[in-house]
Structure formats: structure tokens, C-alpha cells
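Q: Got a minute? One more chain.
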Amino acid sequence: MGKLNPKQVENLAEAGTYEDGDGLRLDVKSSGSKSWTFRYQMDGRRREMGLGKYPSVPLKLARQLAADARKLLASGADPLAIRDAERAAKREAERQAAARQLSFQMLATDYQAAHGTSWSEKWRKGWLRKLDLYAFPIIGRLSADAIQTEHILKVLSPIWATKTRTADEVRGQIEQILDAAKARGLREGDNPARWRGHLANLLSKAEKKKARQRQHFPAMDWRDIPKLMAKLSTLPNRDSVAARLLILTGARSHMIHFAQWSEFDLQAGIWSLPAERMKMRKPFDIPLAMEAVEMLQGIIRTEGSPYLFPGQGKSGVMHANSIRKLLHNLGHDDITRHGFRSSFRDWANERTHYPRELCEMALAHDERGQTEAAYSRSDFLEKRRALMADWARYATTPPADNIVIGDFKRR
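A: Always. Here it is, folded:
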């Protein structure tokens, strides 16, 4: 028979510990709260197991819970470990139940809503369209934790050989969505859509390499860049500034369209792009040459807009085709905005002795392997600053001053 009775438990008000016997005790706090504890020894160690708060757990129930714990002890089991395992199993069951209610298609829409605010309308629609064509018919209704490697292969295999680049983009999208699901606690374990060390062993690497080599954007010869820059500098409009910034930084066109003043530190000469605005979803700093800084300092900011190049459309930024239209009006129908990255790369090959890895890093192409990148974490900002300064100096030098000396053009 216990030492406490229901009335006594109800009236106890002084802070302290009150024993009921056989390891059961009532702890009364100075605040007036009361809770039950079962004390026991296991393998020579003293342990305490909370049984709940009074009055939610009355004396009778507390004694029953303590009795159940003693039975487990008598069988050689640790009641606290068993209870923790039961609670973990319950949480996992609840997680799985929640995960089953959210389909992959719903998670994809959530991901687009969370990350697509800085995307153009065209990119946003295209991003979801690829999933709608290739992924949703196969895994759209599955929960995140139900998607395994065989499902990913079922999505990718039919288009890997014929539409490799699109297939790899879809694979990357699935990987991002499943990573986000894991961060939300909706799945566990490795990502079945990851390439390195996983799908790379199951799908043809040669096809992926060929797909990358096949996509060539029409580019202006690097020797013609100074002439174009001189022509653009005579046009005092926003599109001309955007085009020159595109050329001077080697950035992608969507990075220019959605450039925000908050990303620029003109005093330090750095353009800091957040992860959500980068193709590889990693933050990236672009060193700004003096010529780029001076050009940006001359831009008149539009009140109420965070963008360098605001527009009237839904996106709030300049039209996606503004730079292309400008180039066409100047008689350059044969080149693309993306092609200027190739112009820069060809110039770096022909005119400089900068290491290949550095030139690729300037275009946000980090070709270091996973192990190498883990130890070499530098983004070589200052070395890239020197490279981009040389590029800007060359690009903004009047064509007549770029004379040929041997195999190189010099100022």
C-alpha cells in the first residue's frame, strides 16, 4: 500500500519530494506544479522516468504506470529505453503519415513557390513544364519517402539517350525537391536522384558529356567585343547598360535581369548573388572591374524598386528579350546573350595565361571534384578580380587602340 492518498496529493503545496513507495515519488515545485517520477536502478545506474503531471495523471494511474515499469525491470528490460523507443516509433509513424499526404507534385509546386520569386515568368513555367512532361506521370502521386532509385530511372531512362540535357535538368530538379523534402522531415536517407556516386553508375556518362558539348550558343568573336562595347557606350539607355554589364561580368542573362541593388557593394567591387539565383544553387561572388563599377555608379535608381533594371511587367524587371532586341537592332541577329560567356572564355584562352580552372570559376563553373572542393574551399575571388579587370580593360579599349603585336593584341 502506498504512503500517499488522493486527498493528500491534492492538498500538497510545499515544494519538495514526497515518496509513495517502490520508487514512485511526487515532485512539488515552488510554482505549485506537481509531477510523478519513477526511480529505479539498471545495471548499477540510478535512473529516473517521468510519468506525467498531476492532475492529468492521478495517483491511481501513477501507481499503475510505476507497476508496469517494475514488471519490465523484472523481465530485464529498461522501461525508460522502451518508452523512448515507442515515442520515436510514434513520431516516425506521424512523419510518414504526413509525408504520405504530400505528393511529389505538391512538393514540386511548394519548391517553385519558395524559390521561384526571382525567376522570370518564362523560366518558372518551363521549370514546372519539364516535370509535368516527364516526372509527374511516373512519380507525381508518390510521397517523397516512397521515391526510390528505380522510380528515378523510370523517369530518366526513356529520354536519357535522346534528350540527355533535358533529362539531366529533370534529374537535378527532382534532386532539389527531394532535398527540400528531407529538410522538412518528409523523407530520410540518401537522395535517389543524386548523380555523383549514384546515378553516374547507372546511366551513361558519355551521353551526358555529349549533351553538354552539343549545346553551343552563337557567340560574337572576342575580337569584335571592343567594337560592340564602343557602340553600346554611345547609347544612353538602360538596355545598353544591362548589355555592357552582361559582357563585363560574364553573367547569365537572367542574373542581369533580376539584379538587385542590395546584391552590390560598389565600394568593395563585389556582386554577391544568393544561392537561389544561381544555376547550381550555391551563392557566388562576382568581382566587379573598375569599368563596371563606374558604369553602375552612373545609373539613376528607380524609387520603390529594388532592381537595377526595373520594368512594367508582372516580374517588375526589364523584359527578358530587351538585350536581345537591342543587339538585333544593332544588326547582330547572329549572336545570343549567353554567347558572350563564350566570347570571354575564348579571349581568356587566346589572350591570357590564367589557369583554365580560374577561367571556368569566373563563369561559376566549379570543376573541382567533391573531395578536392571539400579541402579547397576558396572561390579565388582576388585572382578572378585580376582576370575580370583584364577582360574589362580589353573590352572597353577602343578598337583602333587594340593593335596586333605578334600573336596577341595589346593596348
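A: The radius of gyration is 32 Å.
Q: Perfect, thanks.
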